[in-house]
Amino acid sequence: MNAPFQETRDGNVKPPLVVLIAAPRGFCAGVDRAIDIVEKSIERFGAPVYVRHEIVHNRFVVDGLREKGAIFVEELDEVPADAPVVFSAHGVPKAVPAEAERRKMIYLDATCPLVSKVHRQAERLIEKGRHIIFIGHEGHPEVIGTMGQVAEGQMTLVETVEDVAQLSFGAKDDLSFLTQTTLSVDDTAEIIAALKARFPDILAPRAEDICYATSNRQEAVKAMAASCDLVLVIGAPNSSNSLRLVEVAERMGITSKLIGRASDIEHDWFDGVGTLGLTAGASAPEVLVREVIAKLEEWRTVEEQQIRTADEKMIFKLPRELTE
């Protein structure tokens, strides 16, 4: 058991570092499913199995799958016609599976079911003659995939309240809105409010599109951040949900840093820090959380406390091709 206080080389005594660990954190059901699909595809078909785009936005996970026999590519034309290919959890435009079918390729779709739900909503709205205002981050794979479910010109992307003010639609136009699943809950609420103020008849989705895991992780950060001197978020710089966790803490006035893993931590960050908040984005495995704790224990005695705001029991089924 760790001593309650730790003596430094210069003889000073440091109090323990209290580490508040957010729960829920780390892998969500969609990420678990996507990784399982790649691993089971390698078992079923043998290596290599190609994956279009990073299966999830985490280098540790991607490198681990690469070691098992996955080859990651950006476009379908990089995949041999006789090789199996997996589409990432973020979803792909309709043209991608259509091209795979045209080439008679073996493909498996690892799109998160909650993203697929948004895709289906988009199709139904277009069938009803609605133009879709899509709230999301330009260039993100999920946005590209969702906008690729409908014909060009049938969906308009907005990222901010200011973007809403620039829209040229009339108040009586047949409009609807959908959102990316990994956005800031608070930012999105402001954008939706702006849309409803400008377009009172705009059609909202039946249920919120931001996924349960994104919302839960943000709520957990809110619950612990006020008690922290510093918050660390384990995640990738291209991970939307991880970046939002950093923003949540910073908006509460708490210094927050995004790290890929323990090796990114700098010792001087902890000058004057008595309580640290620690969480992980939905693509970051628990092993990286434990790696960070181990790193901290090299410098300070650590007292762990878990801050739980929700229990997650969601499980998504694997594609039929891998279960038959």
Automatic annotation (TrEMBL):
Its cofactor is [4Fe-4S] cluster. Binds 1 [4Fe-4S] cluster per subunit. GO terms for biological process: dimethylallyl diphosphate biosynthetic process; isopentenyl diphosphate biosynthetic process, methylerythritol 4-phosphate pathway; terpenoid biosynthetic process. Dimethylallyl diphosphate binds at residues 57, 90, 140, 239-241, 283. Isopentenyl diphosphate binds at residues 57, 90, 140, 239-241, 283. (2E)-4-hydroxy-3-methylbut-2-enyl diphosphate binds at residues 57, 90, 140, 181, 239-241, 283. CDD domains: lytB_ispH (cd13944). The keyword Iron applies. It catalyses: dimethylallyl diphosphate + 2 oxidized [2Fe-2S]-[ferredoxin] + H2O = (2E)-4-hydroxy-3-methylbut-2-enyl diphosphate + 2 reduced [2Fe-2S]-[ferredoxin] + 2 H(+); isopentenyl diphosphate + 2 oxidized [2Fe-2S]-[ferredoxin] + H2O = (2E)-4-hydroxy-3-methylbut-2-enyl diphosphate + 2 reduced [2Fe-2S]-[ferredoxin] + 2 H(+). It is an enzyme of class 1 (oxidoreductase). This is 4-hydroxy-3-methylbut-2-enyl diphosphate reductase. It comes from Aurantiacibacter atlanticus.
